Amino acid sequence: MKLIPLPAFSDNYLWLLHDEAGQALVVDPGDAAPVQDALQRLGACPTLGVDSEKAPQRDQFLPDSPPHSGTMGQEDGKKWAAAAHSQPTIPKSDRLLGLQLRAILVTHHHPDHVGGVAALRDATGAQVYGPARETVPEPLVRLQQGDTVEVLGLRFAVLDVPGHTAGHIAFFAPEAEGGPLLFCGDTLFSGGCGRLFEGTPAQMLASLDQLAALPDATRVCCAHEYTLSNLKFARAVEPDNQALRDYQQRCEDLRAQGLPTLPSTIALERAINPFLRTREAAVAAAAQRHDPAVNPADPVAVLAALRAWKNGFQ
């Protein structure tokens, strides 16, 4: 199995997974074009997973503007709305002579996650799977906690992870080749979490607790390259966290080479991500210093304070 983050927009990753037989799935395709290109290119050398002559260049990975932790301001909303309504129809003559797209997994309804779904589905016949309680382009198989999806020989468990949106889901494959695999959309980021557009701090805490309980080796495939800005905030919360310092240096080195910082792992996130560490004394104390009204013994209040702090953090 080859796992590939396809850059899109300024900081999205569209995760592509394919097997040696040339069968593929994609997660949260907000833009059809990068996926179409990858399906055609990668099919020529499926054992390598990437065509070295056409590999993404450094500036394809670097965001056009500074990363942020799940923000969706007015201009972002306009950009994503435009993307959702302007995806080109893929001509039949170009219909994917390389990898065959079998499934499209959708975690939530934001346009930068669903904008390319219809074009890819119509071109390939791929089955779309998405959240039961959100507006996603039809037709699709609607899913919720306890459901499973079988594709590419993998069984994905569906997890309800509301907070960023009300009906957000994640896909977890415990027996994936190379280690357990988590596609978590905009719920969990490396070093951070998504903004609370539709959910509550209590919902987000429960969602993050559920993800934090997954096996240590679980690969965390987030939908955005927000790691450096998240780690800058995390260092403000826990300046004495040595694991966090080491990880920040590693991520800075990766980005300097034009490489993704993702996937992360659950074990790493438990060690460095303040939003998974709301019950740690140092994190709770930092939240209280920022907002004296916070009860440091209440992890919901700590998470709410951290999220409000991060929203305005520079």
UniProtKB/TrEMBL annotation:
<dbReference type="Pfam" id="PF16123">
    <property type="entry name" value="HAGH_C"/>
</dbReference>
<feature type="binding site">
    <location>
        <position position="112"/>
    </location>
    <ligand>
        <name>Zn(2+) 2</name>
    </ligand>
</feature>
<feature type="binding site">
    <location>
        <position position="224"/>
    </location>
    <ligand>
        <name>Zn(2+) 2</name>
    </ligand>
</feature>
<comment type="function">
    <text>Thiolesterase that catalyzes the hydrolysis of S-D-lactoyl-glutathione to form glutathione and D-lactic acid.</text>
</comment>
<keyword id="KW-0378">Hydrolase</keyword>
<dbReference type="InterPro" id="IPR035680">
    <property type="entry name" value="Clx_II_MBL"/>
</dbReference>
<keyword id="KW-0479">Metal-binding</keyword>
<feature type="domain" description="Metallo-beta-lactamase">
    <location>
        <begin position="11"/>
        <end position="224"/>
    </location>
</feature>
<comment type="similarity">
    <text>Belongs to the metallo-beta-lactamase superfamily. Glyoxalase II family.</text>
</comment>
<feature type="binding site">
    <location>
        <position position="110"/>
    </location>
    <ligand>
        <name>Zn(2+) 1</name>
    </ligand>
</feature>
<dbReference type="InterPro" id="IPR017782">
    <property type="entry name" value="Hydroxyacylglutathione_Hdrlase"/>
</dbReference>
<dbReference type="GO" id="GO:0004416">
    <property type="term" value="F:hydroxyacylglutathione hydrolase activity"/>
</dbReference>
<dbReference type="InterPro" id="IPR050110">
    <property type="entry name" value="Glyoxalase_II_hydrolase"/>
</dbReference>
<protein>
    <recommendedName>
        <fullName>Hydroxyacylglutathione hydrolase</fullName>
        <ecNumber>3.1.2.6</ecNumber>
    </recommendedName>
</protein>
<dbReference type="InterPro" id="IPR036866">
    <property type="entry name" value="RibonucZ/Hydroxyglut_hydro"/>
</dbReference>
<feature type="binding site">
    <location>
        <position position="186"/>
    </location>
    <ligand>
        <name>Zn(2+) 2</name>
    </ligand>
</feature>
<dbReference type="InterPro" id="IPR032282">
    <property type="entry name" value="HAGH_C"/>
</dbReference>
<dbReference type="GO" id="GO:0046872">
    <property type="term" value="F:metal ion binding"/>
</dbReference>
<feature type="binding site">
    <location>
        <position position="186"/>
    </location>
    <ligand>
        <name>Zn(2+) 1</name>
    </ligand>
</feature>
<dbReference type="Pfam" id="PF00753">
    <property type="entry name" value="Lactamase_B"/>
</dbReference>
<dbReference type="InterPro" id="IPR001279">
    <property type="entry name" value="Metallo-B-lactamas"/>
</dbReference>
<dbReference type="GO" id="GO:0019243">
    <property type="term" value="P:methylglyoxal catabolic process to D-lactate via S-lactoyl-glutathione"/>
</dbReference>
<keyword id="KW-0862">Zinc</keyword>
<comment type="pathway">
    <text>Secondary metabolite metabolism; methylglyoxal degradation; (R)-lactate from methylglyoxal: step 2/2.</text>
</comment>
<comment type="subunit">
    <text>Monomer.</text>
</comment>
<feature type="region of interest" description="Disordered">
    <location>
        <begin position="49"/>
        <end position="77"/>
    </location>
</feature>
<feature type="binding site">
    <location>
        <position position="164"/>
    </location>
    <ligand>
        <name>Zn(2+) 1</name>
    </ligand>
</feature>
<feature type="binding site">
    <location>
        <position position="108"/>
    </location>
    <ligand>
        <name>Zn(2+) 1</name>
    </ligand>
</feature>
<feature type="binding site">
    <location>
        <position position="113"/>
    </location>
    <ligand>
        <name>Zn(2+) 2</name>
    </ligand>
</feature>
